[in-house]
Amino acid sequence: MSPLRVLVVGAGIGGLALAQGLRGAGIEVAVFEKDATAAFRNQGYRIRINADGINALRTVLSPSAFALSAATAGMPGGRMATLDDRLQLLHGQTLPTDDTLPGGGHLAVNRRTLREILLAGFSDAVRYDARLTRYTTHADGTVTAHFADGRTADGDILIGADGVNSAVRAQLMPGTQVMDAGLRLLYGKVPLAGPDAAALVPADLLGLWTTVTGPDKRFVGLAPVQYRQSMRAAVDAHAPGIALSDDSDYLTCVFGARSELMPTDAELFALPGARLRDLELAQTDGWDPAVRRIIAAQDAASIFPVSVRSSVPHDGWDPGPVALLGDAVHAMSPAIGVGANTALRDAQVLTARLADAATAGSPATEALDRYQREMLGYGFAAVRESAERGHRLVGQNQLPEPAERRA
Length: 407
Description:
This protein is α/β, with parallel strands linked by helices and 407 residues long.
């Protein structure tokens, strides 16, 4: 369709969704990832995919890959609840469903599985161990990406999908603020396979998301991933050409607390999983025994800490051949569970804008500018809503006043 060449920095969910969408639109795309392999570091477990995310995946993936993404997802319904530390209900709701979407618009997806689906067919287009150090723009409107190993790549546009520590953003918008939200999270997995699983986790804790809150706004978040068939059966039925790692049912367990209630970051991030689990048990002393049994049942090797950060909303960047996507522009706390969905929406919108430009022969920079204006609206609305809910429920730091647009 077009000689347009797109460089995507970052092979996370948003960057790969964009790459899939662009390739499907006939646009040349290459992806560069600083990690040594796709499984180099743990990036989390269960992801809630809502209607926005489902529609984005339907748009950017092939029909068979989209069918596989739905077949490998849990469908826990739309029930959400907030309980106190004695498991008394404080607030409950059931989100509306959309019968035209898998799971009614509420999917519980395993992050690694989704990423493997998004990587399918890109073995020739993803370069690992490629840490961006800078980019240069040229008089003819093209851009060159420079990597730490000395290699370079040339393209017509460059998209920074490289996360909250984005090297692209650091050059494009050096004054942009990413703030410490004041929360530290410990992510872990509780295996749900075997005859004891039903007795371990009460059925009313297996909804779309359950928050158990305790003193000083400590909390435990619980969310299941329960497969409806094996990975092998799903692949055979929907996309035999895609290879997926095997997995079994589990419960994501997220403990969170204000940073001043936790060890220093230097200490926290050095602790092994078993010590992190002990820390959670110490922090939930006196809570309902069912919650403490769930914490104790976590696979110690699965537990890792996260420092929650949030972008401070801004007015965007000057038009040109470089743009941002996902956490690189609108990182947010997980308080409303839409970070991944917002990145997927970015990929859907940007794919459409660039495909339209390629078809019409219009400048790609105009497509990037239209994408930016649309994305900043819904992206920072999600950042603000996440920050407000996080502050109200679990003591997240409030956002400062928006940063001024850099002159």
